[in-house]
Amino acid sequence: MDEALLAAYRATDYRVRLARGGWATIRIDQPLPPALGALAEDHPWGFITAWNPRSEPSPRPRNRAALRDLLIALRVLPETVAIRPARGVGSDGQWKEPSLWVVGPDVSTLDPLARRFRQIGYVHGQGAAPARLRLVSLA
User: Fold this and answer.
1) N or C, which end of the chain is more exposed by having fewer CB within 10 Å?
2) DSSP-assigned letter for residue 119
3) In a structure prediction context, what are the per-residue pLDDT tens digits for the chain, which is 139 residues long?
4) 39 by DSSP, 3-state: which?
5) DSSP letter at 57?
């Protein structure tokens, strides 16, 4: 993976919309924010998108349709406990990517979804433990 792209992944704010308004921000290698830790309890979770496959710009209608398909795929998983709207925001604030934060599925379930939606990586964790960047091979 290109070092600049990896640095961008690490510098991104992974924001999750809270039920009563506002956002909680996940940062790679930092513990899950308390508001999200309470929702995750001890379950695995993932912050994933279907926008911009292979980290390359894609038309807005195609991105929206792909994210809808990802939401449908997450909803039918028996292990899904909760899904919250989310957004990746680049360090300069200019880049924003609609995403989903899902509680329940672990990496064995999220990896195939990332591949299906041609995502190079996603953020995941277990309960309130530190968030981790997971890179996925698309070969």
Assistant:
1) C
2) -
3) 688 888 989 999 999 999 999 999 999 999 999 999 999 999 999 999 999 999 999 999 999 999 999 999 999 999 999 999 999 999 887 889 999 999 999 999 999 999 999 999 999 999 999 999 999 987 6
4) helix
5) -
For residue 44, count CB atoms less than 10 angstroms from its CB and return exposed for 0-12, middle for 13-18, buried for 19 or more.
buried
Q: Sheet with 44-48: list strands edge to edge.
A: 23-26, 13-17, 82-89, 96-103, 44-48, 121-126, 132-135
Ordered by start, the domain boundaries in the chain are 3-135
The structure's pTM equals 0.95
What letter represents residue 27's amino acid?
R
Q: Which amino acid is at 24?
A: A
Query: Which neighbouring-strand residues pair with 23?
Result: 17
Q: Of 94, 89, 100, 71, nearest to 25 (Cα)?
A: 89
Torsion 47-50-53-59 (CA) sign: negative
Q: Residue 106 and residue 44: Cα distance in Å, rounded? A: 5
Give the residue ranges of DSSP H helices in 1-130: 3-11, 34-40, 60-75, 107-116
**Structure tokens belonging to residue 10:** 């690490």
Tokens matching residue 4: 């600049």
